[in-house]
Structures are given as C-alpha cells and as structure tokens.
Write a structure and sequence with these properties.
Helices cover 97% and strands 0% of the residues. The chain is built from one helix and no strands. The longest helix is centred in the middle third of the chain and has 74 residues.
Length: 76
C-alpha cells in the first residue's frame, strides 16, 4: 500500500510536466503561425503602397493634361 502512495504523486507530477510541455509547444507553434501571417500582411501592405504610388503618378499626369486642356480652351 505504501508503494501506491508514492506512485500517485510521481504520476501526477509527470502528468503536470507533460501538460506544461504540450502547452508550451502549441503556444510556440501558434506564435510561428502568427509571425508567418505577419509577413504576408507586410507583403500585402507593400503591394498596396506600390499601387497607390502608381495611381498618384497617373493622377498627376492627368492633372497636367487637364490643365493643358483648360489653357487651350481659354485661348479659344
């Protein structure tokens, strides 16, 4: 009977250690997934900025063209 009294705390301790190890493992994996997702978000943000710059350049060219058209119409 004394052997069971010793085995129960040891088994309980091992279960707690294994549970803590599993929790730490899955938290690490979740952190890795979040970090990988952050890279995707950063790439998407960079693409959006490039698109906005292209759009800004095109709008500036259109503005220049419009001003030229207005100048021509005023002359007529």
């Amino acid at each position: 009977m004394a052997d069971v009294g010793i085995l129960i705390p040891i088994a309980l301790f091992l279960c707690v250690v294994i549970a803590i190890g599993l929790v730490m493992y899955f938290r690490t994996e979740r952190a890795k997934a979040v970090a990988a997702g952050g890279g995707d978000y950063q790439r998407l943000a960079e693409e959006a900025v490039r698109g906005q710059r292209v759009l800004l350049d095109e709008m500036q060219r259109m503005n220049t063209t419009l001003k030229e058209i207005e100048r021509l119409l005023k002359e007529v």
